[in-house]
C-alpha cells in the first residue's frame, strides 16, 4: 500500500483561517489570480469537494470542470461549507489506499499521487491569493512548500492554461515560498491596488 506523501491538515487549516477572516465588504476585491475574492471563493467551494472526491475516487468517470467566472454563484453558506469540506478532504486523503491508482477531479484524470500534489497546490496558492487580497497573513508550512516545489519546478515557463500563469521571475535569494509563488505564476510582491 502506498503511504501518504504528506498530510493536508496544516494547509487546510491555513486556508480555513483566511476564509474565516474574509468580510462581505471584501468579496469584490481583486486577487493575485486576477479574479475577485467572490469568484475565487466559488472556485474554492468546488475544488475542496472535487479533491475530496478525487481521494475517494467516487467521481472517476463523471467529474466535470468547475463552474468559474463572474456569473458563478457563491453559495450562501460558504463560511461554514469551505471549512467543513477542507476537513473532509483532509480525512479522505488519510484513508488507506487513496494514494494508489488513478483518480479524477474537474474532468482531469491522473495518478492519485499527482492529484494530491495538485490539490495541495490549489489549497496553498489560493489560500495565499485570498490572504493577499484581503490583507491577512499567510505562511504555508515548509514541508508543503517543498512538496509544491517538486511539482512547480517541472512546469513550463509559459505556464499551463487553467492551472498556472507564466512564471514570474523572483530574486535568486528569495525564500522557497516566494520561489514557489513565482513558479506558480504569482508575483510574491503583489499588493492590492
TrEMBL record:
Residues 11-131 form the Mycothiol-dependent maleylpyruvate isomerase metal-binding domain. InterPro entries: CHP03086, DinB/YfiT-like, Maleyloyr_isom, MDMPI_metal-binding. Pfam families: MDMPI_N. SUPFAM superfamilies: DinB/YfiT-like putative metalloenzymes (SSF109854). It comes from the Bacteria. GO terms for molecular function: metal ion binding. This is Uncharacterized protein (TIGR03086 family).
